[in-house]
Amino acid sequence: MIGKVAVLGRRIIENVDRVIVGKSAVTELILVALLCEGHVLIEDVPGVGKTTLARAVARSIGGQFRRIQFTPDLLPSDISGISYYNQKLGEFQFRPGPVFANILLADEINRATPRTQSALLEAMEERTVTVEGDTMPLPRPFLVLATENPVELEGTFPLPKAQLDRFLLRIAIGYPVEDEEAEMLLRFQRANPLDALEPVASPEDLLAAAAACREVHVDDDLRRYVTDITRATRAHEAVALGVSPRGTLALFRAAQALAALRGREYVLPDDVKEVSHAVLVHRLILSPEARLRGRDARQIVDEVLAAVRVPVEQV
């Protein structure tokens, strides 16, 4: 089954590459989140293709896509849906909100008020929505792709750590290199390639692949390696608050999913290292002294990875 996961992953990545040029690694990380049934925070400048990437992934897996533009006047009911009185039927009916989708793009999530941001918490963690006492399940797979613009911070509401911790990964797309940008112009010269993009998988394929990822073998020493990394962040002198146990589990699951996408039935230390920055950086709170010295969380993760002993195979 692991071989099928790798084939499925390559098919989706190649399909998305028809629209997004040169960002296969980013697509692979989004697939890691899908296979872990986690969520992704994309923090990048405007115009690098965040919305297009989300649409391309949704079309590639044959899933339902919805987009919410977060603004200060957005209400929780605008996300979850409302109950309204149907005069023709003489009864109350529920009108589902955009959260009832396979992939939800929460665009500029930090522009909404904390009350509205928190409306996503139950959906992200429990995969359910409760309206007027009724709890309804969300479709599966369910992935929240939230975006933040790190440039314009005026009028924004920074995400609290409790909500940041619910994102499996935080990633950036980045600018294309020169050749990739030229290729982008060629592809979009006559039409948007997204319009002709066809599904190459189904939501059921993703659910089966996600179940297979849980069977990827993780050696006892490698499991200890994962816990040593996250525990080292809590003991680091520059960190006020280290990675939570939820972050430990996220690192473990993400390494399993990456190994499956690479066609392996076992996890290597390199898998853990490769996903460490995307999983751990946004979960660290640095001490005031460290911030004054200009240190950042990526440097701390690098130091932790360099200090923790890597397990080696016994001959």
Q: Could you explain how this protein is built, in words?
A:
- Belongs to the MoxR family.
- This is ATPase associated with various cellular activities AAA_3.
- There is one protein chain.
- The chain is α/β, with parallel strands linked by helices and 315 residues long.
- It folds into 2 domains: 2-209, P-loop containing nucleotide triphosphate hydrolases (Rossmann fold, 3-Layer(aba) Sandwich); 216-307, Orthogonal Bundle (Helicase, Ruva Protein, domain 3).
- The protein has helices at 2-17, 24-36, 50-60, 76-80, 114-126, 161-164, 178-187, 203-213, 220-235, 245-261, 269-280, 288-292, 297-307; strands spanning 40-43, 65-69, 81-86, 91-96, 103-107, 128-131, 134-137, 143-148, 169-171, 239-241, 285-286.
- The strands form 4 sheets. The protein has a 5-stranded parallel beta sheet with strand order 2-5-8-1-9. The chain has a two-stranded antiparallel sheet with strand order 3-4.
- Helix 1 (2-17) crosses helix 2 (24-36), helix 1 (2-17) packs across helix 8 and helix 9 packs across helix 10.
- The longest helix has 17 residues, at 245-261.
- It is globular.
- It starts with a helix and ends in an 8-residue tail after the last helix.
